[in-house]
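Re: [ENG-882] Designed sequences occasionally contain unexpected residues at chain ends

Forwarding the minimal case from QA. Structure tokens:
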């Protein structure tokens, strides 16, 4: 794309990118001259310089090319110099000053390569040579080591594109050969439903339920955009067609508001609602072929609009309610997704507004049940309701996501998320890449049954052996989960049943268990949303500003806690509602929307 053709006054993508880049510039360290600090970007949330902050070189150079302002070039040069702190003698980069993970070299090569491909004219010859030499050192390291790093599937897949970029810049055919080898290996990592697997380990490639390790966030924000970019750059029709099929399949998991339903994925611990932590964004993948597939362009618009709504004070927050919960933003989201917006516009994206609604997303059209056997996930659509129910048994981290027939997402067309799934126990699986809340209780938000015995927690959402069935009765979609309430080691004997019903008018959950237990229903609501307990002590009504109200009505005593919850996974706040159940007692809870 000729950056001169961008209408900087009307292009909302450019406007958002500029806001991000300007805020990142304001956080660049210049007052301390020590090489370990100078030029890095300070994170106000984590109180440190993230090792990957030099990925902002690319969006800064894009911004310099469009605005003709040298301040962005200066920022990019400082970032390149600071990146020496992460460079190792063998040509790799470390993820952070306290992390020896080297796979991240892939993303440095891609962003530096795209900078040189699109914006090298802004550099004098000495700097251009310095950056090009660095790129070749890094690319050579990847040539020899990428398959020895034992990372998740996103690394070899994205490395295919990194090799193509390195070959394009250098003319070295060996990079092309390596890229093709990696890309064609990736073609063997798709399920029958065209979900990319490999984000985590499953013994023998399959779990006991014959599931594959799949993560929606990483797939749509890193792996699939890179695979499609490789196919287009190398004019490889086979790879391109596979990437398109996969992008179409994954698009089923985009919600109508532009959020990604990774409420059940292997790396749920990094779910941000609009995507995932430390990945780049879905924009390049879905933007590349939006002229052929209008729903792809609509996905770009919806997701970018959502990120716009999650941006405050120039930084992209890790979910819709971080700001209202008083939790700060990690800069990682901003510099990673700034790359995606820069790539989107460099690749020729011509939309100048984020006007949505002309094209429908698959989730908007869904009416019925869509089942994915490879991950044991049911996607439900009925009237204004969208639901996700999972008995997925692949575990990336201990208690890393809800299973057992868990309702990992309930979404309403007027309200957005109503219930959502989080880690069963929140802890920093990746300490450098996750936030620990400063002001909030990380109480699990997944609706569930649980009890405590001898200080051990037993839950239905831990049961990897649970069985889930769906049916339609008189137009009502019914999904039933049966299993045992178990601890994280899968120990426990008491049987439970959860039944979810979806109709045009309401969503209903019915449950019972063999053991005295608690039914937790953390109801998504901002701290600014008013919540009124019913006089019958069996209901609660939440008033969503300008969106209407939502009511939970139980046939048993419903307790509501005053303190608002917040969970980093998904980045959402909630009101804690729960019901005490006796062994063998059944309970029914209705969830209704009122447009008032």
């Amino acid at each position: 794309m000729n950056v001169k053709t961008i209408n900087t006054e009307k292009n909302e993508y450019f406007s958002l990118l500029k806001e991000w880049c300007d805020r990142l510039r304001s956080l660049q360290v210049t007052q301390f001259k020590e090489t370990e600090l100078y030029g890095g970007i300070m994170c106000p949330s984590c109180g440190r310089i993230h090792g990957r902050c030099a990925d902002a070189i690319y969006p800064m150079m894009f911004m310099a090319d469009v605005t003709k302002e040298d301040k962005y070039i200066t920022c990019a040069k400082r970032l390149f110099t600071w990146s020496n702190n992460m460079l190792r003698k063998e040509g790799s980069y470390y993820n952070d000053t306290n992390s020896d993970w080297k796979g991240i070299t892939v993303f440095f090569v891609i962003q530096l390569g795209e900078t040189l491909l699109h914006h090298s004219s802004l550099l004098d010859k000495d700097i251009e040579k310095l950056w090009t030499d660095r790129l070749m050192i890094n690319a050579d390291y990847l040539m020899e080591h990428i398959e020895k790093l034992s990372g998740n599937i996103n690394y070899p897949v994205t490395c295919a594109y990194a090799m193509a970029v390195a070959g394009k810049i250098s003319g070295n055919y060996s990079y092309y050969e390596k890229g093709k080898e990696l890309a064609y290996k990736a073609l063997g990592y798709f399920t029958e439903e065209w979900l990319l697997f490999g984000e985590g380990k499953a013994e023998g490639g399959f779990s006991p339920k014959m599931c594959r390790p799949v993560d929606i966030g990483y797939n749509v924000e890193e792996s699939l955009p890179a695979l499609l970019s490789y196919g287009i750059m190398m004019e490889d029709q086979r790879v391109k067609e596979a990437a398109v099929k996969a992008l179409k399949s994954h698009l089923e998991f985009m919600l109508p508001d532009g959020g990604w339903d990774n409420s059940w994925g292997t790396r749920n611990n990094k779910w941000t609602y609009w995507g995932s932590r430390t990945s780049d964004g879905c924009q390049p993948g879905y933007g590349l072929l939006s002229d052929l597939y209008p729903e792809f362009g609509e996905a770009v618009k919806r997701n970018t609009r959502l990120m716009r709504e999650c941006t405050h004070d120039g930084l992209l927050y890790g979910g819709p309610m971080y700001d209202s919960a008083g939790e700060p933003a990690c800069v990682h989201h901003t510099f990673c997704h700034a790359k995606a917006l820069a790539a989107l516009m460099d690749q020729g994206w011509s939309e100048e507004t984020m006007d949505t609604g002309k094209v429908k997303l698959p989730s908007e059209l869904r009416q019925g049940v869509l089942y994915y056997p490879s991950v044991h996930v049911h996607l439900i659509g009925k009237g204004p309701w969208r639901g996700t129910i999972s008995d997925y048994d692949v575990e990336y981290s201990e208690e890393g996501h809800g299973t057992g027939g868990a309702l990992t997402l309930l979404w309403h067309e007027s309200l957005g998320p109503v219930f959502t799934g989080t880690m069963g126990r929140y802890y920093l699986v990746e300490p450098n890449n996750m936030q620990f809340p400063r002001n909030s209780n990380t109480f699990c938000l997944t609706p569930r049954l649980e009890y405590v015995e001898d200080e051990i927690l037993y839950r239905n959402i831990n049961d990897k052996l649970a069985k889930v069935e769906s049916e339609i009765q008189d137009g009502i979609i019914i999904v039933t989960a049966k299993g045992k309430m178990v601890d994280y080691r899968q120990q426990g004997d008491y049987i439970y049943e959860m039944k979810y019903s979806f109709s045009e008018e309401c969503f209903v959950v019915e449950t019972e268990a063999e053991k005295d237990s608690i039914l937790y229903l953390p109801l998504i609501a901002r701290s600014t949303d008013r919540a009124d307990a019913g006089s019958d002590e069996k209901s609660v009504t939440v008033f969503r500003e300008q969106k209407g109200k939502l009511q939970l009505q139980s046939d048993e005593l419903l307790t509501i806690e005053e303190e608002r919850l917040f969970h980093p996974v998904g980045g959402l706040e909630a009101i804690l509602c729960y019901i005490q159940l006796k062994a063998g007692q059944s309970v029914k809870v209705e969830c209704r929307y009122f447009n008032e």
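QA comment: On inspection the terminal residues look reasonable. The first helix runs from residue 12 to 26. Proposing we downgrade this to a documentation issue.
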